[in-house]
From TrEMBL:
Its main location: mitochondrion. Mitochondrial intermembrane chaperone that participates in the import and insertion of some multi-pass transmembrane proteins into the mitochondrial inner membrane. Also required for the transfer of beta-barrel precursors from the TOM complex to the sorting and assembly machinery (SAM complex) of the outer membrane. Acts as a chaperone-like protein that protects the hydrophobic precursors from aggregation and guide them through the mitochondrial intermembrane space. The keyword Membrane applies. InterPro entries: Tim10-like (IPR004217), Tim10-like_dom_sf (IPR035427). Keywords: Chaperone, Disulfide bond, Membrane, Metal-binding, Mitochondrion, Mitochondrion inner membrane, Protein transport, Translocation, Transport, Zinc. GO terms for biological process: protein insertion into mitochondrial inner membrane; protein transport. This is Mitochondrial import inner membrane translocase subunit.
Amino acid sequence: MNQRKEQMKQQIQQELAVANAQQLINKINENCFEKCVKQPGASLSSSEEQCLSRCMTLYSAAFDQISQKYIARVFRERGAAGNDIKIDMA
């Protein structure tokens, strides 16, 4: 029973990770494309490519930092409530 429970827990964590990645990609596409590509055409100019690259890098870094802070906060709050939590951030 515990093994099945652990498998379900891992599956849910994986599904959440995929959903978060999809959300990040969608937000990057929306925000960076809107910022960097003023007049869409058949191809991107070199300045548009550079802008998109910088925007995606910054957006991803900000998302990573916010995610880490949020996870740390959740664990502090749960720890303060007396819950023992084991996290695998792999």
